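User: Please fill in residues for this 156-position structure.
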């Protein structure tokens, strides 16, 4: 899948890749080793603002879904910056979704679908992946969702 094809699919969905966010602590956004790109957890920025709050306490699942999708977009932006092009993406291997949620909130998988469905829409079969979706009591900067990724990349 070429960058132009990805951009066209994003445009058809009414989406664009954001500028890759700078790390907020002592880590790098992407490490490529052994044909895999390990993408650090990405936070949701919509309209330039960080989506903050807790699912089940003021943030409904549909807004969490949009936040997870924004994390997915940031994962792609980080990959493009690190790899030079999304042409090198061979397969989305795994996503890990962390949902800032109350103990009573149990729709973490529905929230994580925001990132998962984005990857499938953009990469087809190669976008279907293994996944974890867990609830946590707090995330960095008060973010509502954080998603990390493992991506198989072409090395040629």
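Assistant: Residues filled in for all 156 positions:
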């Amino acid at each position: 899948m070429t960058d132009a094809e990805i951009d066209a699919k994003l445009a058809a969905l009414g989406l664009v890749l954001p500028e890759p966010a700078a790390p907020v602590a002592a880590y790098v956004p992407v490490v490529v080793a052994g044909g895999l790109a390990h993408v650090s957890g990405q936070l949701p920025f919509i309209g330039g603002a960080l989506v903050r709050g807790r699912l089940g306490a003021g943030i409904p699942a549909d807004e969490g879904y949009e936040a997870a999708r924004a994390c997915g977009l940031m994962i792609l932006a980080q990959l493009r910056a690190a790899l030079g092009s999304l042409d090198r993406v061979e397969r989305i291997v795994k996503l890990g979704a962390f949902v800032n949620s109350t103990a009573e909130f149990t729709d973490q998988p529905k929230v994580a679908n925001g990132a998962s469905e984005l990857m499938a829409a953009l990469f087809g079969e190669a976008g279907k992946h293994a996944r974890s979706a867990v609830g946590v009591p707090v995330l960095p900067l008060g973010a509502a969702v954080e998603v990390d990724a493992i991506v198989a990349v072409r090395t040629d």
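For context: The beta strands are 30-33, 36-42, 45-46, 49-50, 54-55, 58-59, 89-100, 130-136, 145-153.
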